[in-house]
Amino acid sequence: MTLRRERPRLPAAERRRQIIDVTTRLIAERGFWGLSMQDVADGCGLTVPGLLHHVGSKDGLLLAVLDHRDEADVRSLDEAIGDASSAREICAALVRRNANQPEIVRLFAVLQAESLTPGHPAHDYFAARQQKTLEGFARLLKDLTPDPDGVAVRIAAMMDGLQVHWLRNPAEIDLVAQWEAAAEMIFRDLDPPTGG
């Protein structure tokens, strides 16, 4: 007689959230190419066919994770930025927010690097995301510099680079302090003069 393993039945929305959470953690640890559908299924108490019922495919699972992260990012970004209005204040708010979510930063850093390969399922997603980020920074800088596009690239590169160093050695690198030092160099000639 074969014993059937009991799997907890969760409402569809709760199950999907569980799948996304487990997948997010696994991709942050292993990257997309190291992600096993069996490991995701095991982490959720499902069979692989049960997992596929919810996400369709491995590519579909990745896109579901990215969509979920985008929705969460919009909410947390609004909270993080608050009343910040200058480019420097907004960048500092972004860095402070990221310093409090290393697993999400790791997820994006790993996927961003992997997706440089044109055949990666998130290649187009990250290309569009980068373009949107650079355009957003350039808009904030348009009245501060004759080269807002160039400065936007430098800001994004500095943020990305500091985050990678911080993820590799969080005990020794203070992301927020390092960003503030870098921002001092980047924004030194861009900040409007203060009264006095």
From TrEMBL:
User: InterPro entries, alphabetically?
Assistant: BetI_C, Homeodomain-like_sf, HTH-type_TetR-like_transc_reg, HTH_TetR, Tet_transcr_reg_TetR-rel_C_sf
Keyword annotations? DNA-binding, Repressor, Transcription, Transcription regulation
Q: Read off the Pfam families from this record.
A: TetR_C_6 (PF13977), TetR_N (PF00440)
Q: Which GO terms describe its molecular function?
A: DNA-binding transcription factor activity; transcription cis-regulatory region binding
Q: Which residues form the HTH tetR-type domain?
A: 13-73
Tell me which domain of life the UniProt entry assigns to the organism this sequence originates from.
Bacteria
Q: Which residues bind DNA?
A: 36-55
Signal peptide boundaries: none
Q: Which PANTHER family match?
A: HTH-TYPE TRANSCRIPTIONAL REGULATOR BETI, HTH-TYPE TRANSCRIPTIONAL REGULATOR RUTR
Q: What is this protein called?
A: HTH tetR-type domain-containing protein
Taxonomic source organism: Paractinoplanes tereljensis
Upper lineage ranks?
A: Bacteria, Bacillati, Actinomycetota, Actinomycetes, Micromonosporales
